[in-house]
Design brief:
The chain is α/β, with parallel strands linked by helices and 376 residues long. The chain has helices spanning 20-34, 43-47, 51-60, 71-80, 97-102, 112-123, 146-155, 157-162, 182-196, 347-353, 358-363; strands at 14-19, 37-38, 40-41, 65-68, 85-88, 106-109, 131-136, 144-145, 165-169, 202-203, 220-221, 244-256, 261-262, 268-269, 274-279, 301-304, 307-312, 320-323, 337-341, 370-374. Bound molecules: pyridoxal-5'-phosphate.
């Protein structure tokens, strides 16, 4: 169990607690739900929680397929996991085949150029791991367009073999919105693709994809956000266990009269006599400045003394001011623990308070926090 009463380490403005047991349990739950092998997407430093601890915990639990965005992330994953397949989603830049082979990374090939470059590299005798083929079924972002994928399958099977393709994949554009008709179109387009590549393992589901109706799981899934406790079913109860908690401290408490302006540029005005607590983290710790609470816009909040208290004024680089007027006597005091993420402040709530999504909150988690890994 994660605890939310841990005071932040005194040497840091805040402490990030990462429950690796919950991470592993979320990974298992997604695999069970899909009824197939679950991989793990660990790009962006495992969505901010730390790629080495995440990959170590998941590979010990049996995860055999990881996905990163960049080669540098693949190298970090490989440093703690010698066995698993590590796919690099952003694929091959020209002339980069060697570094893939050196670290036994698997490129996710998204164009004819990449496919041909990888195939000729492999024919040069390089004993590289299998690659994946990315087919774009909606996003117009990365991958061969679906029609190109079908042509490739029908006319250039030799290139697929030469490139050592071991997986064909596509990515949802709107899977968190089960009412979006784009999902059914992508599911149908991918079914056609996989039929054209008989015998090749396939992968389609991201986190929210696991919860779509009438969607096959194929042989491998690619959850990211849900592993880290994000809600893959927005608007419904979160089926995942929380993985992270963020705690800071009160460093000053003061009382201000009604009409007093607070923070940089005086953007918040006290509407009543108020008690304000200043806490010691800010945007340089990865807490978005867009969570500022001004006279014209709402913003973020923190839990102090068991009560959700709104921010006031602009989020500063190292400090945030919080309205603690509603706290019962004796109220907030210097040194009190403050929860920024955890309990009622789940990732979606924090994201909404900062006018963004939980994904961005996670992947912005500061390098400045003390980090505590628990649960394993
Ligand atoms: C980031 C990413 C994922 C994981 O998505 P989540 O919504 O975080 O589960 C899966 N596949 C691809 C191609 C991605 O880029």
């Amino acid at each position: 169990m994660m605890t939310y009463d841990t005071p932040a380490s005194d040497a840091h403005g805040a402490t990030l607690t990462v429950d690796l047991g919950a991470l592993v349990s979320n990974w298992r739950a997604l695999g069970e739900r899909a009824g197939t092998e679950a991989g793990a997407v660990v790009k962006a430093d495992a969505y901010g929680i730390g790629i080495e601890p995440a990959v170590t915990a998941l590979s010990r639990a049996g995860c055999r397929s990881f996905f990163v965005a960049h080669v540098s992330e693949g190298i970090r994953a490989r440093s703690v996991a010698p066995e698993p397949t590590i796919y690099v989603l952003n694929g091959l830049l020209p002339g980069h085949c060697d570094v893939f082979a050196q670290h036994e990374l698997s490129p996710v090939l998204g164009s004819h150029e990449e496919l041909l470059e990888w195939a000729s590299f492999r024919q040069g005798g390089a004993n590289a791991r299998p690659a994946a083929l990315h087919v774009d079924t909606a996003m117009n972002r990365l991958g061969l367009w679906a029609g190109e994928g079908l042509t490739l399958a029908r006319e250039k099977a030799g290139a697929i073999t030469a490139a050592g393709i071991g997986l064909v994949m596509s990515h949802f554009a709107s899977s968190e919105d089960e009412t979006d008709s784009a999902n059914a179109r992508q599911i149908a387009a991918f079914a056609e693709i996989t039929a054209a590549f008989p015998g090749l393992p396939a992968s389609l589901l991201n986190s929210s994809g696991h919860f779509l109706k009438d969607c096959p799981s194929y042989q491998l899934t690619r959850p990211g956000y849900a592993l880290y406790g994000g809600n893959p079913t927005p608007g419904k109860p979160n089926p995942m266990r929380p993985v992270i908690g963020l705690e800071s401290r009160v460093i000053q408490v003061r009382e201000v009269e009604a009409g007093v302006q607070v923070g940089y540029n005086g953007r918040w005005t006290a509407k009543r006599k108020s008690r304000l607590a200043t806490i010691c983290l800010g945007y340089a710790d990865g807490y978005p400045r867009n969570a500022s609470w001004t006279d014209t816009s709402t913003g973020g909040a923190a839990v102090i003394g068991g009560i959700v208290c709104p921010f006031v004024g602009t989020v500063s680089m190292d400090l945030i001011i919080v309205d603690v007027t509603e706290l019962p006597s004796p109220g907030a005091k210097r040194g009190d623990p403050v929860t920024l993420i955890g309990g009622p402040l789940d990732l979606e709530t924090v994201g909404a308070g900062a006018k963004t999504i939980g994904y961005e909150i996670l992947t912005s988690l500061g390098r400045r926090h003390a980090r505590r890994y628990v649960g394993l």
